[in-house]
């Protein structure tokens, strides 16, 4: 007996956008300026899912009327990325983000302005105050990013973009080496949908959910990377996983904004010692996220504690009142006073620096497939500095939308293959549940591919991840929901394998990738690890960075202090 998943039919469009966060919304708006037929397909609800909505809604944009400059933003981004960023992408980000922020304002996204000027704040990794925020309005702190997505959603709907929601894409369709659409599963209708498109923009975000402790939303489980690998695309920099240093797990789960560190907050250990100056004497709590996370992790290991303590007693009360009122109020409801009580925090997986290899037109290595946002790699190099991710969504979302239209206009289009559209699954009773395999995988990644890695931890993780993939064959699968879950855990396993293989190859420490067996950076690794699928295997290659490297002289910060 088998479960036949029926196909709801073939839906045709010019440009298909996969995802429903800031990147996808901007890509859809740009594409819709040029062509009539734009479709967005989303695992969750468009504009109400993904990491954009839980973000702190901060964008990095330099101010041309101050000592800051596009060039300085460029240099800071390279410094954070430890020299392996794709400099053409960094150039695009830093030079275009100001224009895109103005577009957002025109679309109704309410940025904080003081006396008519965007309010710019200093954040870790930036040498000047250049981080601008969106007003949270009445949205709860946990979903303040809705103040970005909902105005964009309104625009998208008013411009007639078709939305297909709660319908995760499970496969990209490739014909004659060109991406020509996707297959998605309509969770409510319990059927497959074939989406045929002249060009596709992949904007499914990152993959924090592959790890046990993360601040990412439930739907962000590495689909971008697995879909791309299965379609034959190349990924880069998958070993670089950013841990957010200040994640509070109890009494509530929330990230603590790192700009508090620029406003006087410090970190202390159990003994009350302010320990960051021991790890980074120059920058202390203003160090980049990789340095902070590693210091906290090592301090937790040293003291055997489950976290370290955030001390905000020196943050001026008016700053709390004006800038952190929402957080202070949420804590107050749990009996904590941000001004007086220490908060227990630990690092959590926050952002994936790696992703699809793209060029300056957001073209992936497979014709017809464009990508942008957290789905892609290269912009941030080995480590992202704060607020550059949302800037990335709007700059590259717009480029991807426009370039997908150009491609759609030029291609004659391919017909999706006739086979493989419906799905036939043989129900089976197994000895293990899908949930158990998923949670085991997340724990393996948290332990083995963590803030501090080694050949041993990575080899063990590699074996165990493969074990998870095999265990999936022993799981009970009998309903449509099980099938959706099974396919998504397969994606998680594939993404995890790409991360582990990349981390094993890079025998040095750089940015967010710290190998205790190779604790220093090594010039020979100034370049990127590329991963692609070849004959059902993952193939990893190191590609040295080309000439004309503009990597600033920052030798002192490249030497690891741990
Ligand atoms: C707690 C938190 C705070 C942050 N704060 C900031 C900040 O202040 N500034 C900053 O620069 N960055 C911040 N970031 C990072 C930033 O929010 C993200 O990198 C960015 O929002 C990613 O946008 P995106 O559109 O690429 O992906 P997302 O916003 O994550 O959207 C991905 C979309 O793809 C959909 N999707 C996933 N899989 C599929 C599939 N198989 N088929 C169809 N759809 C799919 C999802 O449902 C979702 O709609 C923060 C991140 C977190 C977690």
What does this 3D model show about the protein?
The structure is a single chain. The protein folds into three domains: 10-240 and 353-409, 3-Layer(bba) Sandwich (FAD/NAD(P)-binding domain); 244-349, Flavocytochrome C3, Chain A, domain 1 (Alpha-Beta Complex), CATH 3.90.700.10; 424-519, Fumarate reductase/succinate dehydrogenase flavoprotein-like, C-terminal domain (Methane Monooxygenase Hydroxylase, Chain G, domain 1), CATH 1.20.58. It starts with a strand and ends with a helix. Helix 5 crosses helix 14. It is 34% helix and 21% strand. It contains 15 helices and 24 strands. With 562 residues, the chain is an alpha+beta fold. The strands form six sheets. Strands 2, 3, 9, 10, 11, 12 and 20 form a seven-stranded mixed beta sheet that branches. The protein has a five-stranded mixed beta sheet with strand order 21-19-13-23-24, covered by helices on one side. Strands 15-14-18-17-16 form a five-stranded antiparallel beta sheet. Mean pLDDT is 92; it is low at 548-562. It has helices spanning 22-34, 70-80, 87-106, 146-158, 223-230, 259-262, 276-279, 289-303, 317-323, 325-333, 388-410, 434-448, 455-471, 480-505, 555-558; strands at 3-5, 7-18, 38-41, 58-60, 113-114, 117-118, 120-121, 131-133, 162-164, 169-175, 178-186, 191-202, 235-236, 241-248, 254-255, 266-268, 308-311, 343-352, 355-357, 369-371, 376-377, 423-425, 527-534, 537-544. Bound molecules: flavin-adenine dinucleotide (FAD). The site of flavin-adenine dinucleotide has 41 residues, from helix 1, strand 18 and helix 11.
């Amino acid at each position: 007996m088998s479960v036949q998943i029926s196909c709801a039919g073939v839906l045709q469009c010019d440009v298909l956008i996969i995802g429903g966060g800031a990147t996808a919304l901007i890509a859809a708006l740009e594409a819709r300026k040029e062509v009539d037929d734009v479709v967005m397909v989303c695992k969750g609800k468009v504009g109400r899912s993904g990491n954009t909505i839980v973000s702190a809604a901060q964008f990095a944009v330099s101010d041309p009327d101050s000592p800051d400059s596009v060039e300085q933003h460029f240099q800071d981004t390279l410094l954070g990325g430890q020299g392996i960023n794709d400099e053409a992408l960094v150039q695009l980000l830093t030079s275009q983000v100001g224009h895109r922020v103005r577009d957002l304002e025109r679309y109704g996204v309410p940025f904080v302005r003081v006396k008519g000027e965007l309010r710019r704040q200093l954040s870790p990794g930036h040498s000047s105050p250049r981080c601008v925020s969106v007003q949270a309005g009445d949205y709860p702190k946990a979903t303040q990013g809705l103040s970005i997505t909902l105005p964009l959603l309104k625009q998208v709907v008013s411009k007639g973009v078709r939305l297909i929601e709660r319908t995760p894409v499970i496969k990209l369709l490739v014909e004659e080496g060109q991406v020509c659409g996707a297959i998605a599963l309509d969770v409510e209708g319990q059927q497959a949908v074939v989406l045929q498109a002249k060009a596709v923009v992949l904007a499914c975000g990152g993959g924090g959910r592959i790890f046990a402790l993360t601040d990412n939303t439930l739907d962000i489980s590495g689909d971008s990377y697995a879909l791309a690998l299965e379609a034959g695309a190349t990924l880069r920099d998958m070993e670089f996983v950013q841990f957010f240093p200040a994640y509070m797990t109890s009494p509530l789960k929330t990230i603590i904004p790192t700009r508090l560190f620029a406003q006087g907050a410090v970190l202390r250990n159990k003994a009350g010692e302010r320990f960051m100056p021991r790890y980074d004497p120059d920058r202390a709590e203003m160090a980049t996220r990789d340095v902070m996370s590693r210091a906290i992790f090592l301090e937790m290991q040293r003291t055997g504690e489950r976290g370290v303590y955030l001390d905000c007693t020196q943050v001026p009360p008016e700053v709390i009142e004006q800038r952190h009122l929402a957080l202070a109020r949420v804590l107050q409801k749990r009996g904590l006073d941000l001004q007086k009580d220490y908060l227990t925090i630990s690092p959590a997986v926050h952002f994936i620096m790696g992703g699809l290899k793209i060029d300056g037109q957001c073209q992936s290595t497979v014709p017809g497939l464009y990508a942008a946002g957290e789905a892609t790699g290269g912009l941030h190099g080995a480590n992202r500095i704060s607020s550059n991710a949302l800037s990335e969504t709007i700059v590259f979302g717009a480029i991807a939308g426009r370039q997908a239209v150009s491609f759609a206009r030029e291609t004659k289009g391919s017909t999706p293959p006739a086979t493989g559209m419906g799905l036939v699954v043989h129900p089976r009773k197994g000895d293990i549940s899908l949930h158990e395999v998923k949670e085991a995988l997340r724990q393996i990644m948290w332990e083995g591919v963590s803030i501090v890695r080694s050949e041993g931890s990575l080899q063990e993780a590699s074996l165990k991840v493969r074990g998870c993939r095999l265990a999936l064959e022993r799981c009970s699968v009998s309903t449509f929901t099980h099938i959706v879950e099974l396919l998504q855990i397969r994606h998680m396993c594939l993404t995890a394998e790409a991360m582990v293989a990349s981390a094993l190859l890079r025998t040095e420490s750089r940015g967010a990738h710290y190998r205790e067996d190779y604790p220093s950076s090594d010039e020979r690794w100034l370049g990127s690890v590329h991963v692609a699928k070849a004959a059902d295997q993952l193939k990893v290659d190191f590609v040295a960075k080309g000439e004309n490297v503009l990597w600033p002289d920052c030798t002192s910060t490249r030497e690891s202090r741990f």
